């Protein structure tokens, strides 16, 4: 068994969404990060990535990232709701086959 290949398959998948004409990528949190997703800000920091899988948001002003507290609340809420919808549903391709 190739554990690295299995690990990649079990990692949360990136799902593109469009925000203000730009594509960003959201994913479900890992089981390790799930308890850290206590509000919209922390969830965006953990679950929003760029096309390379790198975080977009941070809690403070960091070069190369956007301070999550500086974005429009309505946009923040829309992204959060999209992430929550991913958490709430599962696709057939996301289910682990039992043998």
List the helices and strands and how they pair.
Blueprint: H1 3-10, E1 15-19, E2 22-26, H2 31-34, H3 40-47, E3 48-49, E4 57-58, E5 66-67, H4 73-88
Parallel strand pairs: 4-5
Antiparallel strand pairs: 1-2, 2-3
Describe the protein's architecture and organization.
It is built from 4 helices and 5 strands. The chain is globular. The protein has helices at residues 3-10, 31-34, 40-47, 73-88, and strands at 15-19, 22-26, 48-49, 57-58, 66-67. The chain is α+β, with helices and mostly antiparallel strands and 99 residues long. It has a single domain (10-90), classed as Phage tail assembly chaperone gp13-like (rbstp2171, 2-Layer Sandwich). A 3-stranded antiparallel sheet has the order 1-2-3. A two-stranded parallel ribbon has the order 4-5.
Rg over C-alpha atoms, rounded to the nearest angstrom? 14 Å
- Count of DSSP helices? 4
Return the CATH class: Alpha Beta
Q: Tell me the strand percentage band.
A: 15-25%
Q: Unreliable stretches, pLDDT < 50, 5 or more residues?
A: none
Strand order of the largest sheet: 1-2-3
CATH superfamily: Phage tail assembly chaperone gp13-like
Distance between the termini: 15 Å
**What profile does the largest beta sheet have?**
3 strands, antiparallel
What class, by secondary structure content?
A: alpha+beta
Order of H and E elements = HEEHHEEEH
């Amino acid at each position: 068994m190739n554990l690295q290949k299995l690990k990649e398959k079990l990692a949360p998948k990136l799902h593109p969404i469009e925000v203000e004409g730009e594509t960003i990528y959201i994913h479900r949190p890992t089981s390790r990060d799930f308890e850290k997703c206590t509000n919209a800000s922390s969830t965006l920091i953990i679950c929003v990535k760029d096309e390379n899988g790198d975080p977009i948001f941070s809690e403070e002003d960091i070069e190369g990232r956007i301070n999550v507290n500086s974005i429009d609340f309505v946009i923040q809420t829309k992204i959060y709701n999209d992430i929550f919808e991913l958490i709430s549903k599962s696709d057939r391709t996301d289910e682990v086959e039992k043998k």
